[in-house]
Amino acid sequence: MEIAFEVSRYNPEEKEGNFYQKFSISARPGNLDDLTVLDSLIRLKEEKDGSLTFRHSCGHGSCGSCAMLINGENRLACKTHLVDLLSQDESRVKVSPLPGFPVIKDLVVDLGSLFEHDREIKPYLVGSDKTSPEEENLQTPEELAPIQEATKCIMCGACTSSCPTYWDNKKYLGPAAFVRAFRWESDSRDESEGERMEVLNDKRGGVWGCNKVFNCNDACPKDIDTVGVIEKLKRKALGF
């Protein structure tokens, strides 16, 4: 069977701007269960057009580099199977770059702002002068439990890219930064003494910009309850 693809193309060195290019690949119906969008893009690049540009690395949902807009939803290309996309109502696969970020080329976007916001929330344990570097900073399973969900974040950008507040306000830190902030701010070993909360409580870019649209929850490939995390940060900002 032939599978139709529409892939967003953009080359900054050419004048035509963004457009969708149509491709097709052949596959046996029985192989669709195993064929992913990433597999298909690699085939398109190898067999149809070597200039097609996209990011990918691990191929099993750990690195987050292949996040893109697939049939209108932010997904990881390596974890999205064609069998889940194709139906009687949907006979083609449409692939675009993540929305909300500047496009560098084709499906590759500039994630500089994502990582800049991540740096703002200090994504590491903040210690004090009393903490000895010669000692292990241990944590019990019970202390880990409240933050374990947040540790699953792979910084793919799918959640932030799906957020209407972020589309409108690039100073807004975004869901990914909030999940990462919660992971470190709520760590039993952290001694930041409110430094992160000062950033998170900011009216322009902090957690109060969240309108609970739940796009971030739907987009997260790790099923993190991002809105729930943000609500916990709001309560913490209020002193609860």
Description:
The protein has 240 residues and is of the alpha+beta class. It folds into 2 domains: 2-109, Ubiquitin-like (UB roll) (Roll); 112-237, Orthogonal Bundle (Fumarate Reductase Iron-sulfur Protein, Chain B, domain 2), CATH 1.10.1060. It is 30% helix and 14% strand. It has helices at 37-47, 82-85, 112-120, 141-144, 158-161, 164-168, 175-185, 195-200, 215-219, 226-237; strands at 2-9, 19-26, 67-70, 73-76, 92-96, 103-105, 108-109. A 5-stranded mixed sheet has the order 2-1-5-3-4. A two-stranded antiparallel ribbon has the order 6-7. Strand 6 and strand 7 form a beta hairpin. Helix 3 packs parallel to helix 7 and helix 7 (175-185) crosses helix 10 (226-237). The chain is elongated, with a radius of gyration of 20 Å.
Parts with pLDDT < 50 across at least 5 consecutive residues: none
Distance between the termini: 58 Å
- Would you list the SSEs in sequence order as H and E? EEHEEHEEEHHHHHHHH
- Mean pLDDT over the residues: 93
Rg estimate, integer Å: 20 Å
CATH architecture of the largest domain: Orthogonal Bundle
Oligomeric category: single chain
The CATH topology of the largest domain:
Fumarate Reductase Iron-sulfur Protein, Chain B, domain 2
Gross morphology: elongated
CATH class of the largest domain: Mainly Alpha
CATH superfamily of the largest domain: Alpha-helical ferredoxin
Give the proportion of residues in helices: 25-40%
Proportion of residues in β-strands: 5-15%
Which class best fits the helix and strand makeup? alpha+beta
Count the helices. How many?
10
Strand order of the largest sheet: 2-1-5-3-4
Largest sheet: 5 strands, mixed
Number-wise, the strands total 7
